[in-house]
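A reminder from the course coordinator: this example appears on the midterm review sheet, so study it carefully.

Given structure:
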């Protein structure tokens, strides 16, 4: 066992052993019934920052739950989730608990959006996470309106409020990450939220604090992608098992490499930017489908009912599939963390491009 794994395990033992004098308490409260007897989990990012490791769990009793533990020497993050990885996991807004002495309270509204209060560090991260979440939702709604009312023949023009929100989110993210420098929590926050910092100068200042752990993480991700064979442009698509709307297992190979190009669009019903992107996808589909172009949306939703309700509401006229969990998950197979995420496949089944894909790239494949 390597030294860094031993150190990581030591942190876990310290958190939930009985030897520390300083204690933290997490008190959770849901706004409605129906969760009695279900589990809620605390997780940490592993040393390579590539996945969550469960460190504790407890049962919800009625509409409440509680965790207790010992306060570590450094500022770390404990991520709170309902449900187990690969099974039933969901949460609307992110919850990152900083184990510090005192009582930390987390309440969830009817939409499972969290409000977090408690000692100093938890007040700060709670405000940061909730403000960022609310601002991103507002941005998504504005973008959705822009796309709905936009003349597709004219260039996309953002409103001043949309641009202002981007600046505010970027500045608040920069300020909060700066305050977390030289802590283990900084590493994962930079990976998760660093892309929101719009100023190159500000991002460079944050990047100057790269730790050895972040360097290891980058190397581990690169190696992982090589080992798992993530499709790169020019290579054939990778197989993926999904569920269709009738709950039947299907394979991507049933639809790809069949003589027509396909856009794979990974999304979820709770992803604001994903929903905001749907009107643009509809415009692309209306224009290119008659020329032999297809779209396949693959939802990353954990709950089938939330997925089907979103399909009813947004009425997307192309193939809809649901991602299957575990080691065959789309995120692992295609090497992405955030959504929306797109993969453009040509008529022969080769990957053309990945990430943010523009209509011009799709149009080239049918001309």
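Designed residues:
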């Amino acid at each position: 066992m390597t030294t860094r794994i031993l150190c990581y395990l030591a942190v876990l033992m310290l958190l939930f052993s009985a030897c520390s004098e300083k204690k933290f308490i997490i008190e959770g409260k849901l706004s409605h019934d129906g969760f009695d007897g279900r589990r809620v989990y605390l997780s940490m990012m592993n040393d390579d920052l590539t996945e969550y490791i469960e460190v504790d769990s407890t049962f919800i009793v009625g509409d409440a739950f509680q965790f207790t533990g010992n306060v570590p020497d450094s500022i770390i993050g404990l991520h709170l989730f309902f449900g187990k990885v690969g099974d039933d996991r969901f949460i609307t807004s992110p919850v990152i608990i900083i184990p510090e002495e005192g009582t930390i309270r987390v309440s969830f509204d009817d939409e499972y959006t969290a409000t977090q209060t408690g000692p100093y560090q938890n007040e700060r991260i709670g405000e940061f996470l909730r403000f960022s979440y609310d601002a991103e939702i507002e941005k998504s709604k504005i973008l959705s309106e822009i796309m709905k009312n936009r003349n597709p023949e004219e260039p996309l023009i953002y409103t001043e409020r949309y641009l202002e929100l981007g600046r505010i989110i970027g500045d608040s993210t920069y300020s909060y990450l700066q305050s977390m420098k030289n802590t283990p929590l900084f590493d994962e926050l930079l990976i998760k939220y660093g892309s929101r910092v719009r100023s190159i100068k500000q991002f460079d200042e944050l990047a100057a604090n790269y730790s050895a752990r972040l360097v290891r993480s980058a190397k581990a991700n690169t190696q992982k992608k090589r080992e798992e064979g993530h499709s790169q442009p020019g290579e054939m698509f990778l197989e993926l098992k999904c569920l269709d709307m009738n709950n039947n297992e299907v394979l991507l190979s049933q639809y790809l490499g069949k003589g027509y190009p396909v856009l794979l669009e990974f999304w979820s019903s709770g992803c604001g930017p994903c929903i905001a992107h749907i009107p643009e996808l509809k415009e692309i589909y209306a224009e290119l489908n008659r020329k032999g172009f297809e779209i396949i949306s693959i939802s990353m939703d954990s709950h089938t009912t939330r997925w089907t309700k979103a399909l009813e509401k947004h009425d997307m006229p192309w193939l809809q599939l649901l991602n299957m969990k575990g080691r065959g998950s789309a995120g692992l197979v295609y090497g992405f963390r955030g959504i929306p995420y797109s993969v453009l496949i040509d008529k022969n089944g080769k990957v053309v491009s990945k990430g943010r894909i523009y209509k011009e790239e799709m149009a080239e494949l049918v001309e």
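The chain has three domains: 3-117, 122-225, 229-364. The CA atoms of residues 74 and 312 lie 47 Å apart.
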